[in-house]
Write a structure and sequence with these properties.
Blueprint: H1 15-27, H2 37-44, H3 48-52, H4 58-81, H5 86-103, H6 105-113, H7 127-140, H8 143-165, H9 173-179
Helix pairs in contact: 1-2, 1-4, 4-5, 4-6, 4-7, 5-6, 5-7, 5-8, 7-8
């Protein structure tokens, strides 16, 4: 039986999901290096040994949090691109990438900078990567062209996100829209 100690505690169900949710919440206020499995166990009201059944070490937890972040970002991108024409949908997913990064800086840095790769390629095998690949293939019509466009687009949106997060550029929605504009993004 699982002991329930607070109103936020885990209640019979998916302990792994509860731990990931607690970790995501913790990333909003706690430095990545200060998050611990024992701390999350206390937050969800279970023993530390229960946590280790799902995450053998902190790295395994960080991988799960990074994947949850990528999934969350993909949701933002899907909503942003919904109903748009292909080139505008491509740009909309890029703007959503930057806005998600600004709204979730620690999770963004974890997912893209402090964790091992999420998938088997530089883009991984997740919804965000599949959207990027699909849009790039549609716009270029070739695998080689798609690969080039994927790298270019990712470099632009990731670079813009990092510049804004690091205070090198202002966190400005109008600037995001100006830089990630389907009509001008890769124009000569």
């Amino acid at each position: 039986m699982v002991t329930v100690s607070t109103s936020k505690s885990y209640h019979h169900g998916d302990l792994r999901a509860a731990l990931v949710a607690a970790g995501l919440e913790e990333l909003k206020t706690t430095d990545i290096s200060d998050i611990s499995l024992r701390q999350l166990a206390r937050q969800v009201g279970v023993s530390a040994t229960a946590v280790y059944r799902h995450f053998p070490d902190k790295n395994a937890l960080m991988q799960a949090l990074a994947q949850a972040g990528i999934d969350q970002m993909a949701q933002w991108q899907r909503r942003a691109a919904k109903g748009a024409q292909e080139s505008e949908a491509f740009a909309a997913t890029g703007r959503a990438y930057v806005r998600w990064a600004l709204a979730n800086p620690a999770l963004f840095r974890l997912a893209f900078g402090q964790c091992d790769q999420i998938g088997p390629s530089v883009f991984g095998d997740n919804e965000a990567a599949r959207m990027l690949r699909s849009h790039a293939q549609h716009l270029t019509g070739s695998e080689a062209g798609a690969q080039r466009l994927m790298i270019q687009a990712w470099a632009v949106v990731h670079g813009l996100a990092m510049l804004m997060l690091d205070g090198q550029l202002p966190r400005d929605d109008a600037l995001i829209d100006q830089i990630i504009d389907a009509r001008t993004l890769f124009a000569a």
